[in-house]
Design goal:
Blueprint lengths: L4 E6 L2 E6 L10 H15 L6 E6 L23 H11 L4 E5 L2 E3 L1 H4 L6 E5 L3 E3 L13 H9 L1 H8 L5 E2 H6 L5 E3 L4 H13 L3 H12 L2 H20 L2 H12 L1
Parallel strand pairs: 2-3, 3-4, 4-6, 5-7, 6-9
Antiparallel strand pairs: 1-2, 7-8
Helix pairs in contact: 1-2, 2-9, 4-5
Length: 246
């Protein structure tokens, strides 16, 4: 396995660790595709009952690797969108563990996890507008559904950072932990899930997502064209150039 994704499978739990510490676990094309493949394969693996998603070195992810935003895109789904679709379509329970920072898609992917545990000193930010971009990851609809329209406007339009405590109080995350304990909490919940009757568990998740999934995929399609246009905009390219100069 490519070392940008560490894979551990034991006791019915598949733990996927984003492992690009030199880039603050920023997600590049290869890493997205590896994550998507692992999640899709887990759905067909009778030995896997739950998935844990985390980042190496006590840091979740700095979001999309901005270098990929400066190269031409092929038509159709990006690698990031393939990963998000795999996340949304998975009937296995998915539990995220957040330490350090979650930025951009590092935040929006959490909308599609069933449980999210974050350290109380973790921080989150969705800097799409400051980067000249627009919402992705179905955040144009899901964020307001989860945390309410006022808070969604603060996070998506202003790009305001928020803490692990704020994330929990808003209902965006399931719970908070002391620093360094998010992964152990996520794995404890995943281990509990792995003891439950698997058919009943997966059917129950499928029922809960039945009306949401079509709307989420429609949002992905809607956002894709707009996000692709924004990537080519002068505003976005200027923001990327300024970022790399710093």
């Amino acid at each position: 396995m490519n070392q940008t994704v560490l894979v551990d499978k034991r006791n019915g739990v598949l733990t996927l660790t984003i492992n690009r510490p030199e880039r603050r676990n920023a997600l590049d094309i290869a890493t997205y595709l590896l994550l998507a493949d692992q999640i899709a394969s887990a759905s067909d693996d009778k030995e896997v009952r739950a998935i844990v998603l985390t980042g190496a070195n006590n840091y979740f992810t700095a979001g999309n690797d901005l270098k990929d935003f400066q190269t031409p895109r092929e038509p159709g789904d990006s690698a990031g969108l393939k990963f998000l679709r795999a996340l949304v379509d998975c009937d296995l329970p998915i539990i995220a563990a957040v330490e350090g920072s979650a930025i951009g898609i590092g935040v929006t992917m959490l909308q599609h996890c069933d449980f999210v545990y974050a350290a109380d000193n973790a921080n989150f930010r969705i800097p799409f507008v400051p980067l000249g971009l627009c919402p992705e990851g179905a955040s144009s609809i899901r964020m307001a559904q989860i945390v309410g329209p006022r808070r969604a406007s603060e996070w998506l339009l202003r790009g305001r950072a928020f803490t692990g405590v704020e994330a929990c109080e808003s209902g965006f995350t399931t719970g908070i932990t002391p620093p360094g304990k998010a992964l152990s909490q996520a794995q404890a919940v995943a281990t509990e899930m792995a003891t439950l009757p698997p058919e009943a568990l997966q059917l129950s998740k499928r029922m809960m997502k039945h009306s949401l999934r079509p709307a989420i995929h429609a949002a992905f399609d809607y956002e894709l064209g707009l996000f692709t246009m924004r990537l080519k905009s002068d505003e976005a390219q200027t923001a990327f150039a300024n970022f790399f100069r710093k």
